[in-house]
C-alpha cells in the first residue's frame, strides 16, 4: 500500500532536482515484492511509516517554542468606550483607543500605560523570567502578558503594525529557506544510493544470492537519517526562539555556526540607544530634582529623543509630572511653555539666548561626550542637564566570549567621531574600531571581510535604519530590535528581541552547536549504515533483521539531532 504514495513522493523529490534516501526505501520494497519476500517488504513499509511519524514528531517537538508564539497571538481586545468596555476584534482597534487588559491576558497591541502601574510578564518574547514593572507612560509591547492587576493602556499602533504581529511574520518565515548544509546532506543521499547499489550488486554477483542484494537495500534504508540535519537546525531555531532570538531561516543558523567575523554597530547595539541623565548642573542653588521635574513636565509634549529621555528619567525617579500649558515647540531647538506658573524654555543654548537673552556657560571639557539640554525659568538661565548613551551591562562580555567561540575579527562600526567611538570601544574591550562610518562605509566594510576567505562568513549586528543595507548584505544580519520590528529587522536574518547584546553571542553558540550536531548525526548515521551493509553483503544479516537494525540506527540519529533543542 505504501509503494504508490512513496513512488509519488520520490518522483516529486527527483523533479525538484534532489535525490533523497527514500528512493532506497522504494527500491527495497519493490525488490522485496518481486522476490516474494513479503515479510521483509512489510517490515520496510512499517519502518518507513514509523520513521515518517518519528520525523513529524521530532520536527513538531523542535518547533514547539516557535508555535507557542503563534498560538499566543490575541484575537480580541477590550476597548474602553466612556464608562463601558466592549469586546472587539483586535483588527478593529485604532491608534489612540484605550484598551483594558485583564489579569493574565496577552496585550493585543503596542501602547503606552494609562494606569499608574502595571506588572508585565515578557518571558514569551524575551525569556526574562521575572515580571517587569512599568509606570504610567511606559511603553508596552503586544504579545507580552499582564502578570498583575488589570490596567488600561492607550494603543500606539494597530494590530497589524504592532510588535507581536510583525514578530509572528518573522516566525512564519523561519523555516522557508534550506541551509547550505542541508543541501550537502542531499549529496550524501546520492553517494549513499550509489554505494548501496554497488555493494548490493557486488554481493549478488559474487555469491549468486539475490537475497543478499535485498538485504543490503533494506539495511541501507535510512528514511529519516538525512532529515537529521534539518531537524538539528530547526531545533536550533527553536532553541534560539526560546531565548528571544528569532532566526528567519536554516541557512542563517548554519552561517552563524561558521561565523568568523562579527561587525558591531555602536548606538543601540553596544549601547542602550537611549540617553540617560549623567548629571544636572543648576544655577543659584536651585534644586536639581525640581529642575528636572519642570523640564520633564514640559518635555512630555515633545517627540524629540532627548525629551523622551528626560521624561523617562523623571518617571524612573518617581517624580510626579505636571501637564504643561501654552506649549510651543521649535523643531530642532527645543520647546517653550508654562509649567505650574513658570515660563520655561528647554532645549539648545541658541533657543535660551534668543528667547530670554540668557547665555548658558561654555561646556566643560569632560562634557564633550554628553548631550546637553539647557533650561531657562522665567527669563533666567536655570541649569544644564547632561545626558549620555551608556554601554549595555553585558557589552564587556561580548569580545571574550566571541573569541572563545572561534570568531577571528570583532570590529565596531559607528558613525560617531573617533573620540566617542574609541571611548565606547575601550569600555567594551573591543580593540578594532572604525569611526565616522556612513551607511555606504558599513556596506563596504561588510564586503571587504566577505572577500577574504579567512574572515567569512560575516555577521553584522545593528539596530537602525542606517544599518539596514549592511545587514542585508552580510552573510548573517542580526538586528537588535527590542522596541519593535523596524527596517533593520526586516533586512536582517536574525532578530534579537531582548535588550541584551550577549544574546548575539548566544545565537552564534547555538548555531555552532546545531551545525556540529547535524554533521555528527549525518556522518555517524551513514557510517553505521555502511557497516551494516557490509554484514548484509556477506549474508550475516537477513532482510527482516536488516530492516529492524536500520530503524534502530535512524531512531538513534534523530534523537541525537534533537539534542540541539537544549
How are the SSEs placed, and which strands pair?
Elements (H helix, E strand, L loop, with lengths): L2 H13 L6 H13 L3 H25 L1 H8 L4 E6 L2 E6 L8 E4 L9 E3 L3 E5 L1 H4 L5 E4 L3 E2 L4 E2 L4 E5 L7 H10 L7 H28 L2 H10 L8 H15 L2 E3 L2 H9 L2 E5 H5 L5 E7 L5 H12 L5 H12 L8 E6 L3 E6 L2 E6 L1 H8 L14 E7 L2 E9 L9 H7 L4 E5 L4 H11 L3 E3 L4 H12 L7 E5 L5 H6 L2 E5 L6 H5 L2 E3 L5 H36 L5 H19 L5
Parallel strand pairs: 11-18, 11-20, 18-19, 20-21, 21-22
Antiparallel strand pairs: 1-2, 1-3, 3-9, 4-7, 4-9, 5-6, 5-8, 10-22, 12-17, 13-14, 14-15, 15-16, 16-17
**What is the mean predicted local confidence, pLDDT?**
81
What shape does the CA trace take? Answer: elongated
End-to-end distance: 38 Å
Helix content: 40-55%
Q: What about the largest sheet?
A: 7 strands, mixed
Number of strands: 22
Show unreliable segments: 174-179
Secondary-structure content class: alpha+beta
User: Major sheet: order of its strands?
Assistant: 10-22-21-20-11-18-19
Q: Give Rg in angstroms.
A: 31 Å
- The helix tally amounts to 21
Strand-residue proportion: 15-25%
Amino acid at each position: 500500500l505504501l509503494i504508490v504514495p512513496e513512488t509519488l513522493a520520490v518522483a516529486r523529490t527527483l523533479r525538484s532536482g534532489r535525490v533523497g534516501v527514500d528512493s532506497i526505501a522504494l527500491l527495497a520494497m519493490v525488490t522485496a515484492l518481486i522476490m516474494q519476500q513479503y515479510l521483509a517488504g512489510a517490515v520496510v513499509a512499517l519502518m518507513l511509516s514509523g520513521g515518517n511519524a518519528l520525523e513529524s514528531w521530532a520536527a513538531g517537538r523542535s518547533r514547539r517554542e516557535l508555535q507557542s508564539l503563534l498560538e499566543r497571538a490575541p484575537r480580541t481586545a477590550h476597548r474602553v468606550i466612556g464608562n463601558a468596555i466592549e469586546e472587539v476584534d483586535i483588527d478593529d482597534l485604532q491608534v489612540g483607543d484605550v484598551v483594558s487588559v485583564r489579569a493574565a491576558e496577552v496585550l493585543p497591541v503596542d501602547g503606552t500605560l494609562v494606569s499608574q502601574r502595571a506588572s508585565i510578564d515578557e518571558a514569551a518574547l524575551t525569556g526574562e523570567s521575572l515580571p517587569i514593572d512599568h509606570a504610567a507612560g511606559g511603553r508596552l509591547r503586544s504579545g507580552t502578558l499582564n502578570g498583575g492587576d488589570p490596567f488600561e493602556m492607550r494603543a500606539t499602533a494597530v494590530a497589524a503594525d504592532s510588535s507581536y504581529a510583525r514578530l509572528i511574520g518573522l516566525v512564519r518565515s523561519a523555516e522557508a529557506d534550506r541551509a547550505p548544509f542541508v543541501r550537502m546532506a542531499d549529496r550524501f543521499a546520492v553517494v549513499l544510493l550509489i554505494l548501496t547499489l554497488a555493494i548490493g550488486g557486488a554481493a549478488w554477483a559474487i555469491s549468486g544470492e539475490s537475497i543478499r542484494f535485498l538485504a543490503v537495500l533494506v539495511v541501507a534504508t535510512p528514511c529519516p537519517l538525512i532529515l537529521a540535519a534539518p531537524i538539528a537546525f530547526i531545533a536550533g531555531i527553536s532553541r534560539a526562539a526560546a531565548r528571544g532570538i528569532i532566526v528567519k531561516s536554516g541557512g542563517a543558523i548554519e552561517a552563524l555556526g561558521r561565523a568568523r567575523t562579527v561587525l558591531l554597530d555602536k548606538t543601540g547595539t553596544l549601547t542602550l540607544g537611549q540617553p540617560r541623565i549623567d548629571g544636572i548642573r543648576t544655577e543659584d542653588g536651585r534644586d536639581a530634582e525640581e529642575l528636572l521635574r519642570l523640564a520633564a513636565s514640559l518635555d512630555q509634549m515633545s517627540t524629540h529623543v532627548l525629551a523622551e529621555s528626560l521624561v523617562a528619567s523623571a518617571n524612573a525617579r518617581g517624580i510626579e509630572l505636571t501637564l504643561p500649558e501654552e506649549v510651543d515647540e521649535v523643531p530642532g531647538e527645543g520647546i517653550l511653555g508654562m509649567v505650574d506658573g513658570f515660563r520655561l524654555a528647554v532645549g539648545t543654548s541658541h533657543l535660551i539666548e534668543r528667547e530670554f537673552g540668557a547665555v548658558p556657560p561654555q561646556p566643560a571639557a569632560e562634557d564633550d561626550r554628553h548631550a546637553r539640554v539647557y533650561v531657562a525659568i522665567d527669563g533666567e538661565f536655570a541649569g544644564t542637564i547632561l545626558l549620555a548613551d551608556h554601554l549595555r551591562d553585558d557589552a564587556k562580555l561580548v569580545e571574550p566570549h566571541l573569541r572563545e567561540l572561534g570568531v577571528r575579527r570583532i570590529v565596531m562600526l559607528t558613525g560617531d567621531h573617533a573620540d566617542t567611538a574609541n571611548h565606547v570601544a575601550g569600555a567594551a574591550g573591543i580593540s578594532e574600531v572604525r569611526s565616522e562610518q556612513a551607511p555606504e562605509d558599513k556596506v563596504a566594510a561588510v564586503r571587504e571581510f566577505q572577500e577574504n576567505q579567512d574572515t567569512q562568513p560575516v555577521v553584522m549586528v545593528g539596530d537602525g535604519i542606517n544599518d539596514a543595507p549592511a545587514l542585508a548584505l552580510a552573510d548573517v544580519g542580526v538586528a537588535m530590535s527590542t522596541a519593535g520590528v523596524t527596517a533593520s529587522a526586516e533586512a536582517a536574518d536574525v532578530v534579537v528581541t531582548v535588550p541584551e547584546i550577549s544574546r548575539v553571542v548566544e545565537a552564534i553558540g547555538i548555531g555552532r552547536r546545531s551545525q556540529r550536531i547535524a554533521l555528527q548525526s549525518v556522518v555517524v548515521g551513514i557510517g553505521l549504515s555502511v557497516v551494516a551493509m557490509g554484514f548484509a553483503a556477506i549474508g550475516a544479516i537477513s532482510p527482516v533483521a536488516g530492516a529492524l537494525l536500520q530503524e534502530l540506527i535512524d531512531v538513534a540519529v534523530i534523537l541525537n539531532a534533537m539534542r540541539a533543542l537544549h
